[in-house]
Amino acid sequence: MAVRPPNMPLASPAENLRQLVLRRYHQMPPLEKTLVQLFSVIYEPVSRATYILCLNQLGITDSSGRPFNNQTFKPYIDRLLALEVITQSGGQGPQCNPLLAEIATREAVQAGQFESMMRVVKKQLPVTERWKGGPVYFNSDQQLIREVRFGIYSHDVAFINRRLDEYYQYRSSRSEITLDDIFQQVCNHPFDADWFCTLPEELYEGALASILNVSMLSRTPAEEAFTLLEDDWEDPEFTTSDMQKVLLLEQLVLRGKLTEAERVLDSLTEPFRSHSGNLWGILDVLRGDVFTAMGRYAQALQDLKKATGKRKIYFQSMSGLFFVLALLKAGTPDRLKEAEGYAATARQAKHWLSPIYTVLENLLKVQQGDLGRKELVLAAAPHINQQSLEILFRALCVYWVDENQAKLLLPETLKLFYQEAAAAGYPWLAMEAAEIVSRLQPNSPYAQFAADLRKDSGVLPLVDLLQPQATWELSLNALISLQKKTRLLRRNLIPISAWPGL
């Protein structure tokens, strides 16, 4: 695969097709645009007869000013299908092209037509009630999305919550649609900052966090959403919540902007400000000051236990990963044991980072002499379909336990990861990948790529926190660990002379 430094991503085939369909849509006369907008509000496939009923209830007439019927509607639908602004699969009714649906609905909102369209669609295409006045069930995933879209475009948060509650309580399919999935589909398909800024605060913050988190995890560009978040924080007339500041902090870290991240941390208000030690700890670790980081993390964890009333709890954000790295770097037996305990707690919590903690826990056991765990770490080598942090931390663990095996297991995945992360706007992730590849392939250009990305950032590569150990070094650690256990066992033995009856 050809190697190139990070650059701006090329437009995807889907985006090129969207632009083509959008040009055709914008060249249509107003009546045809209105027809497309109604299809977009209906969202799911609909029979032509039902669609015509909706048109007539809305008072939308043909070019001659007459109500639509099957015969007069046919030339319109044939033209919309030919232009691909409307699509139709075999055995189903027509529907708005998904690449155009959100743009058309937003134009219906802007034209003041959305509310009336929504009311007619609810009447003609109602969601089935389980009993009169009772909860509903959804005939398809698209029907659920249609209902949540109603809530998003009409700013009705209570309606969204009710529909989602009904879906989660009564869903029959094994797969599950999440609010994140719907935010991606509705609010980021494509992203429109002008329309997005009209959302009420609860939807605005939730959708923005969803878009940026998915961008980070899947390495898909979300530059407009990030710029909006950054502009909100910089705007003195806009009050950015502390949750939004934490979101911005995480994005800045992943983009290698530690100085800006520090400014955001300084702007936190109480009570977040007094309990932000774990967030400062991320910056400390990335700057190589693991001992300051450990002090901050210890206090933050103590605060967390006090706030929750739980003795066995650990951070659920990405900050917890960096505490484990700090303890790994410290490397003393007590610190390694402490880190192993945190990794086990986080693994058992079964949240989005638990798979990473599983690998870290095995790495920590290897560091303490349990060589049987080495194969488990190597078996956890990353693949490109995993989320970003999982790829990075799995790769680090594999490299640290066996550099030779890492040369076989990691380069191809990390080179592709580097390209994706750089193109998506996450230079820190790209830099860390390039650093690992440069250790495995010293004659490759990745050392220079990493240096270019790291320049002026103040970031020290995570890969240098530990040095890979040869098999004999791991065996020596295992022998030392065994000797310590033997000495402890001897100290705890009760002399035979002290046994009862002797």
Which key phrases capture this entry?
502 residues; mainly alpha; two-stranded antiparallel ribbon; elongated
Summarize the structure.
This protein is mostly helical and 502 residues long.
Layout of secondary structure:
Layout: H1 13-26, H2 30-42, H3 48-58, H4 70-82, E1 86-87, E2 95-96, H5 98-110, H6 114-124, E3 128-129, E4 136-137, H7 141-153, H8 157-170, H9 179-187, H10 193-196, H11 201-218, H12 223-234, H13 242-254, H14 258-266, H15 277-286, H16 290-308, H17 319-330, H18 333-348, H19 354-367, H20 374-379, H21 388-401, H22 403-409, H23 411-424, H24 427-440, H25 446-454, H26 471-492
Antiparallel strand pairs: 1-2, 3-4
Describe this structure in words.
This protein is mainly alpha-helical and 502 residues long. Among the domains are: 15-126; 369-493, no CATH class. The chain is built from 26 helices and four strands. It has a two-stranded antiparallel ribbon with strand order 1-2. Strands 3-4 form a two-stranded antiparallel ribbon. Helix 2 crosses helix 5, helix 12 packs across helix 13 (242-254) and helix 17 (319-330) packs antiparallel against helix 18. The protein is elongated, with a radius of gyration of 28 Å. The termini are far apart. Residues 1-9 and 494-502 have low confidence and may be disordered.
SSE run: HHHHEEHHEEHHHHHHHHHHHHHHHHHHHH
| Euclidean distance between termini CA atoms | 76 Å
Secondary-structure-based class equals: mainly alpha
Helix content: 55-70%
What kind of sheet is the major sheet?
2 strands, antiparallel
Spatial ordering of strands, largest sheet: 1-2
Computed CA radius of gyration, to the nearest angstrom = 28 Å
**What is the total tally of β strands?**
4
Beta-strand percentage range: under 5%
Structure annotation, total helices:
26
| Overall average residue pLDDT | 91
Give the CA-based shape: elongated
Low-confidence segments? 1-9, 494-502
